[in-house]
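Chains adopt folds. We examine one example:
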Amino acid sequence: MKFILSQKKILGIVLILILIVSIPLIRSLVFLTSPVGTGKIARIVDFREGYTMKKVAGELEQSHIISSAFMFTVYARLQGADEKIKAGAYQFNDGMNPVQILHKLITGDVYNCRFAVPEGYSIYQIASLLEQRGLFRKEEFLKQCFNRSLLADLGIKEPCVEGYLYPCTYNITPHTTETDLIREMVTQFQKHFSLELDRKAKTLRMGTTQILTLASMVEKEAVAPGERALIASVFLNRLKKKMPLQSDPTAVYRLRAFAGKVSKRDLQHDSPYNTYRINGLPPGPIGNPGSDAIKAVLNPATTKYLYFVAKMDGTHYFSTSLDEHNRAVNKYLKSRAVPVEGTENTVPEYRNDYPIVIKGE
């Protein structure tokens, strides 16, 4: 007995088959093109070496970045992505669709937080900046700056890494530790200056740390970039004559960041770094100088200058004698004296100047 289907039944079966096939396709299309949110939720998801696509998809679903680990796995395998995804930490948000997410995994677009170290910043300022950015705790970073084992491994004989942290921009991943960052900073410094420092140190009759100490002072003192070599010459001339360096930033090192204002109390602060209280260079750098400041010390201007005073326009007046310097102080500073708030004894707002002059120099 032959079973003959009517045209209506055939059409119905065809429609059912089309629906059976099309519904998953539609669902897949919606899944692939529709994010689970609006992009307000961001997550950093870390995929280690050896993670399977199933595990990757599972973590994405748990992080609420995708709606279905199963569908993402199927899509990824159809794309042949099993062997293409790269390990690392990735930043996703719930406004990304699965196509965008998989593309990011295949191209290895890992998450990096870019952290810029400004020229002249001390380890204390860098530590505060790292904490403000939510990258590291200030205390832990500073602890590693004095880590003797780390310093020895880096070839630094000083008690601290101050001066050896090269100012530039660094990429910090979730796996980066305080020691990792310090190592990278010192490596960058060595890459740029090890050979030149070794060569010039003999000419200047100074050690690497002494050169960096002087460069850190030049970095803090200089406002106009073109004056770095002149300021370096002043300090070197004073050292040759065994004159106190009397550099304002050294008086407040470890107390606070130098911002151009010093008080009489600052200048009298009992510190091994305060060049108003000690002769010669401080025991170490007061910050981490940039390339130009280091080069200024390695290649100072040839001058007889022994003094400089701020002209309140970002430049300085340089003098060879005490009388000339005092006239410059009267001209540029004393007529514009500004009290330093919060101190009992104040001095004019000296910026990069020698406010105390020793008689008989």
In short: DSSP finds 14 helices and six strands in the chain.
